[in-house]
Amino acid sequence: MGQPAFKPTEPLTPETEARPFGWRDKLGYLFGDFGNDFFFILVAIFLMVFYTDVFHINPATVGVLFMIARLWDAFADVAWGRFIDTRKTTPNGKFKPWIFRMSFPLVITGVLMFVKIPGMSDGFYLAWAFVTYIVWGTLYSTVNIPYGSMASVITDDPVERTSLSGWRTMGAQAAGLIIGVIGPMIVFVDNKIDPNRMLMAAIVFGVLAISCYMACYKLTTERITAPERPKQEGKKNETIKGLVKNKPLIWILVASLTFMVCTMLIQTVNTYLFKDYFGNTGALSMINFVTSGTVFVLMPFLSPLVKKFGKKELAAFGMLLAGVVYLALFFLKDISAVQFVSIITIGMFGNAIFNLVIWAFVTDVIDYHEFLTGLREDATVYSIYSMARKIGQAVAGGLGGALIGFVGYNAAIGQQTQETLNGIHTLGTLLPAVIFLLIFLIIVFLYPLNKQRTLQLAADLAEKRNSQQ
């Protein structure tokens, strides 16, 4: 099964020996996704409407751009993950240095996406969109892959890892709360997006993102490291065989991909749903507040709930709840925007449950890979998972643009037809209901690591590591 995967007690720096896992790591890990999502959520909520209403790009073309970029990013994730796994550990860790190095070009490129140079042709704006968006997505991988991989080397305790997953989600939702609530107030004027305000928002959020990345770099500590191994050709084959046999990884990939499709579709469609169907962009701030707020409400209860019920069991319940609420909203066509938000709040609690535990699933499947192969390949396994999410984003980006175009949306007219408005409502309610219920079935019937099996995996892996020392 290969050489010892790692020595859990091996220190990276003198600081590692002196300071145990604690609040500093949790806060630092929160800042990482806080920085990530200042731009990721900004893009998810506003970039498509910026392209359609400011650059005047056909929504179906925007969908093609999103799909191409995310598919490219999916494979870039894996390549970058394999690259990082072959790098030597530095005194500051294996993953943290890449966050420091790559965050600056990432944020600069992100700001450029929202720059409109006056007086240029439609072809220029289309080319600008393609180049800046694809480059930004590629650079995002260079920061997000090392950041995501860090969780499994900050601590090897399952409960502490679940805590990190929750803190990461809180960081993402904090960014979502700021952007989702304040963003529409800044960038929309009379229900229309303003390009100058959009650029100003991108610059402000870019500065905040850099600050968060630096906080993540300074506050977290990598405690677990693999000993240097000579390169062997057979190791690649062992990795591939282990990934294929890793059923928990396969099914969490499928569930996560499907969840990303749903999340991105909701974020895309909600802008049009509240802007056009309800005629109330102010309510867009309300629903974004609810989406993030439910995470903060549930966060204190995460660890006790996981200890009592297990991650799989909680995630399945969350998806069932969200699916049922969205299905009910499909049949409630004559309610106001405020009533819509009030009802959807219940479903958002289900969505928040899944969001809070998803990253803890990833650390479990990384452990399962080590158990199968004897190889500790955090970045490789995480990059495979990230690839699935990028494919989900690609599918959602392509579908979002295509479906908005399919229902007849036309940015050139002031008022959309009733048929188009009904189509937007269906995209924002029935489609998420179907997808959430599908995820529920995947988790219940196909994902194998329930509470009991997860605890047994931790015990078996600890025994295996001890026997290899």
Structural description of this entry:
This protein has 469 residues and is mostly helical. The protein has one domain: Growth Hormone, Chain: A (Up-down Bundle), CATH 1.20.1250. It is 78% helix and 1% strand. The protein has helices spanning 14-18, 23-53, 59-85, 96-112, 122-149, 151-154, 158-187, 195-219, 233-245, 247-277, 282-298, 302-309, 311-330, 337-373, 378-406, 418-445, 451-468; strands spanning 188-189, 192-193. Strands 1-2 form a two-stranded antiparallel ribbon. A hairpin with a 2-residue loop joins β1 (188-189) and β2. It is globular.
Characteristic terms for this protein:
single chain; 469 residues; mainly alpha; Growth Hormone, Chain: A; 17 helices; globular; disordered N terminus
Brief overview, please?
By secondary structure, this protein is an all-alpha fold. 78% of the residues lie in helices and 1% in strands. It contains 17 helices and two strands.
Give the topology.
Blueprint: H1 14-18, H2 23-53, H3 59-85, H4 96-112, H5 122-149, H6 151-154, H7 158-187, E1 188-189, E2 192-193, H8 195-219, H9 233-245, H10 247-277, H11 282-298, H12 302-309, H13 311-330, H14 337-373, H15 378-406, H16 418-445, H17 451-468
Antiparallel strand pairs: 1-2
Major sheet attributes: 2 strands, antiparallel
How far from one another are the termini? Answer: 14 Å
Number of domains: 1
Percent helix range: over 70%
**In terms of structural class, how would the helical and strand content be classed?**
mainly alpha
- CATH class bucket: Mainly Alpha
Would you report the number of β strands? 2
